[in-house]
Amino acid sequence: MTATMSYAYAVARDDDDTLARALSGLPGVADAPVHLVRQGEMVVAVSPVPEQDFQESALRAHLEDLEWLESVARAHHRVIGALAERTTVLPLRLATVYLDDERVRQMLDARQEAFAGRLSELTAHTEWGVKIYVETPAATERPAAPPAAADLSPGRAYLSHRRAQRHAREDAYREAEEVARRVEDAARHHAVDRVQHRAQQGELARGPGENVINDAYLVPVGHAEGFRADVLRAAEGLTGVRVEVTGPWAPYSFATPPETEPMKRAAP
Amino acid sequence: MRAADGRPPAVAQEPLPDRQIALIDLLDRLLSGGVVLTGDVVLSIADIDLVRISLRALIVSISEQMPAPWSATAPPVRDGHDG
């Protein structure tokens, strides 16, 4: 028998007692069953996790292990996804851990009002990811330079090739800038808030191309299809740029209210 | 959800099978989004940043030092000169 702690996933309102069903049979972190800790009509989805893995130092070490991190992240997301299919959820940051369920209840009790307020604001909204990729000649192996005239010396042919490559890249960035503008226009019609994530790089970033924009938009449910369609249209007719839309997501990026004014204000 | 205009969607739209979701998209949200509470295991934001740093090869976060090639997503300004 191992000692356990309480891993908290998300907060939601459950006034008609239906959320427990959404969680039944669903494996949480460490494959443990997920239950609800309740305070009035507010609930926190919680599951027991082995204390030895989630104590501070162990947790810190584990989080550097990509495989471990992935399994926790996917479980976290699975639980939030199941809830989000039924209701508005307020996701908690990955690896929010309490000593026991009673501590979770105390936390919920103390913050009930703030949670309820944000949940109301997020009702009937989902998050959408928009990523813009520049498909540079290097990435696409686009024959940017015509295998330059045979009468050029190797040195000059090389330079001419490099120049052509550079121009193609500059064009691609310019196009990406145009696409970003179009996406913002689309967003003005449909979205109520935006969070900019860091551009994705490194081994986990899946190309093709270079990710230059990695944004999340908060979109009213009724606007979701229009938003998606308009955003996907933004790259139409442009060859060096690709737009990817992900979602709908639970409002991970918008769990806390914006510190600055929402983007609507920026609309001309 | 259907593809709004018949073109193939850029990504699978079903929210269900989580294995289809790219880990990096998930980590973008789970490591920087969500409500931050001080649980009983105090893993500070700084620690999460540490995670980012130690996974630098995987989830690089160099945009502070190396900004995007342009600042198109800065709040729209109308008074600039257009090309």
From TrEMBL, chain A:
<dbReference type="InterPro" id="IPR009430">
    <property type="entry name" value="GvpL/GvpF"/>
</dbReference>
<dbReference type="GO" id="GO:0031412">
    <property type="term" value="P:gas vesicle organization"/>
</dbReference>
<keyword id="KW-0304">Gas vesicle</keyword>
<dbReference type="GO" id="GO:0031411">
    <property type="term" value="C:gas vesicle"/>
</dbReference>
<dbReference type="Pfam" id="PF06386">
    <property type="entry name" value="GvpL_GvpF"/>
</dbReference>
<protein>
    <submittedName>
        <fullName>GvpL/GvpF family gas vesicle protein</fullName>
    </submittedName>
</protein>
<comment type="similarity">
    <text>Belongs to the gas vesicle GvpF/GvpL family.</text>
</comment>
UniProtKB/TrEMBL annotation, chain B:
<dbReference type="Pfam" id="PF00741">
    <property type="entry name" value="Gas_vesicle"/>
</dbReference>
<keyword id="KW-0304">Gas vesicle</keyword>
<comment type="similarity">
    <text>Belongs to the gas vesicle GvpA family.</text>
</comment>
<dbReference type="GO" id="GO:0031411">
    <property type="term" value="C:gas vesicle"/>
</dbReference>
<dbReference type="InterPro" id="IPR000638">
    <property type="entry name" value="Gas-vesicle_GvpA-like"/>
</dbReference>
<dbReference type="GO" id="GO:0012506">
    <property type="term" value="C:vesicle membrane"/>
</dbReference>
<dbReference type="InterPro" id="IPR050530">
    <property type="entry name" value="GvpA"/>
</dbReference>
<dbReference type="GO" id="GO:0005198">
    <property type="term" value="F:structural molecule activity"/>
</dbReference>
<protein>
    <submittedName>
        <fullName>Gas vesicle protein</fullName>
    </submittedName>
</protein>
